[in-house]
Request: fold
Amino acid sequence: MDTKKVKPASVAAQALGWIDEETRAIAPSIHTATTYLRDPDNQYRSGRVYARDHNPTFDQAEAVLRELEQGAEALLFASGMAAATAVFQALKPGDHVLAPKVMYWSLRNWLMTFATQWGLQVELIDMADIEELRRHLQPGKTRLVWIETPANPLWTITDISAACEVAHQAGAKVAVDSTVATPVLTQPLTQGADIVMHSATKYLNGHSDVIAGALVTREKDDYWQRIRVVRAQIGGVLGPFEAWLLTRGMRTLFPRVRQACASAQRIAEHFADHPRVLEVLYPGLREAQGHLVAAKQMHAGYGGMLSIRVKAGEAAAIATAANVQLWKRATSLGGVESLIEHRASVEGPGTPAPADLLRLSVGIEDTDDLIADLEQALERAR
Ligand SMILES: Cc1ncc(COP(=O)(O)O)c(C=O)c1O
Reply:
């Protein structure tokens, strides 16, 4: 496939148009071998030695993602957490990193416990405020700025290109957790970021049946080589079947994300002025924090994630989640089925999620059905 002649949706739909040269199959094979034969001359003519780093089933998914993110190389990991923590483990004890106060809670917890005990100097800041970022950067000491946009669970928006400009001036790299935006809506590397990270468990796979993670780099520099070594040596790699499922999932990425965005926008607008709703948090709403930045850096939609604050408070929020019939009451996001959860119950003490907040992951069901189900659940929760 000549990727210069076709749009990203075509690249994804045909997974780069790869066919198996031997069988002419248009779907790839799953390679389960863990090791590869050494040749008589003591070399490996395949370039593959051992499957912890070299499974051919990774190749197509990594190539598709690299193309969609316009990067130099992609790596699959066993989970989003394995991918994200590899970025930090490639740093050195004593390095200073900046991360947002509002971000995926489990990574924030890991940063404040394990990463800190291991010697990273982690500071959490309001990443949406570029002046605050500028004030906290320590030139020559800050090695990494971690961004998540839109950020869990308030869907805070950070201006990627502005953050990259100030971070790079101070000599820091920028990594972006783009799980929620997906490459359909945002390509952080084209906006100056050095690394983009995905929990591929979410939209990339899209069917709530694979745990996976991925990183894509703008340049194959020394830092990236260290990340490669972390994956190979610590071994947080994906299984071949999961890599194969991920390739299949990405073929429908564009229609799934477009449908989720259109539906989320309608749901956000519907409940924005609802008598039982205090506030809807969604970057597609004109009054939302960061709406103008989102309009600049997100294309064709504002994502499938939104949060609703229930006016009657925490108990009513929990009762609403308990009363849905079509939405599934479960954590996670980015699947074809819509999910709802009381976020503070998931994150526990220290969460930035208000007690009355319900996090919604909009799937691809009929939008009217989703709205009607939320209406009846809010009514019954009174
Ligand atoms: C934004 C974001 N980043 C990272 C992760 C971690 O991904 P995984 O669950 O695949 O390890 C998640 C999972 O919920 C997430 O929502």
Observations:
- Residues 253-272 form the longest helix (20 residues).
- The mean pLDDT is 97.
- The radius of gyration is 21 Å.
- DSSP finds 15 helices and twelve strands in the chain.
